[in-house]
Design brief:
Helices cover 19% and strands 15% of the residues. The protein is an alpha+beta fold.
Length: 257
């Protein structure tokens, strides 16, 4: 079912976010508004399907034991910054995690980051009863914290276990990344960076950190742009989608798995 797949893609940011702000929020910190997530780009400018943001991760270049991408994500988005001390370790929000895999036949081991796959056909959106989980036309799968009721259906529907639930009050939140107790969240591809104007647009924090460490294991870009680095690499080399059998057409692809 495609229940509640709200047409946010075709309306202006101002109209959509204004309507969202009018809805009762759950646990959003005082002074933090969802509108802040998009104010880097003109609010009257609609999201376009001229782009589809995607990520290519090369497991052959991903160093075992390296957590640069995880650490950068936590810092950029204000995760685990001393404000979730009452949560058990397994309950703390995690937008990206490192997974160690071993081939039982050959004993070959690989390490790779796992995050929201930003699916073209996201099951989290299908099961959301309020429309809080939605997909933008540029491929980003996001959560409107003002309409999320914390039912966690999306967490159960996600085959990648990529979403987290906030169990307690949060302090020291970042203006560009609103979070709140009783809501679900996941990787946004650092949407606050992508919604900057073209001259100021930056790659997601995890990509920057991986490049800064010299691993070059993550390529990010517009999959619809034939001249982009990610499109060139996807055309040149074989890549795989995790759980391709589900036909979700994720925006995150992997090499070396």
């Amino acid at each position: 079912m495609n229940k509640q797949e709200i047409p946010v893609q075709g309306i202006s940011r101002r109209k959509f976010l204004g309507a969202s702000a009018a809805t009762a929020g759950i646990g959003i910190a005082s002074g933090v508004s969802l509108i802040n997530i998009a104010n880097a780009k003109p609010l009257d400018e609609p999201v376009s399907n001229d782009q589809r943001w995607g990520m290519l991760i090369d497991a052959n270049k991903c160093a075992s034991g390296c957590t640069s991408c995880v650490d950068a994500c936590n810092t950029e988005n204000g995760l685990n910054a001393g404000d979730e001390q009452l949560s058990r370790q397994g309950q703390k929000a995690q937008w990206i995690r490192k997974v160690e895999l071993r081939d039982k036949a050959t004993q070959h081991e690989i390490s790779l980051p796992l995050l929201c796959q930003h699916c073209e056909n996201p099951p989290c959106v299908d099961v959301c009863p309020t429309g809080a989980s939605f997909k933008r036309e540029d491929g980003l799968v996001l959560v409107d914290k003002h309409t999320c009721i914390g039912c966690r259906y999306c967490m159960m529907a996600c085959p990648y276990k990529a979403r987290s639930f906030i169990h307690e009050e949060l302090l020291n939140q970042l203006e560009d990344v609103p979070r709140g107790k009783g809501t679900v969240e996941s990787c946004t591809f650092c949407v606050h960076r992508l919604d900057e104007d073209t001259d100021n647009r930056r790659d997601p924090a995890c990509v920057e950190a991986c490049n800064a460490d010299g691993h070059q294991a993550i390529i990010f870009g517009d999959m619809k742009d034939a001249n982009s680095a990610i499109s060139q690499q996807l055309k040149k080399h074989t890549s795989k989608a995790i759980r391709a059998d589900l036909k979700l057409n994720p925006g995150v692809r992997y090499r070396g798995i």
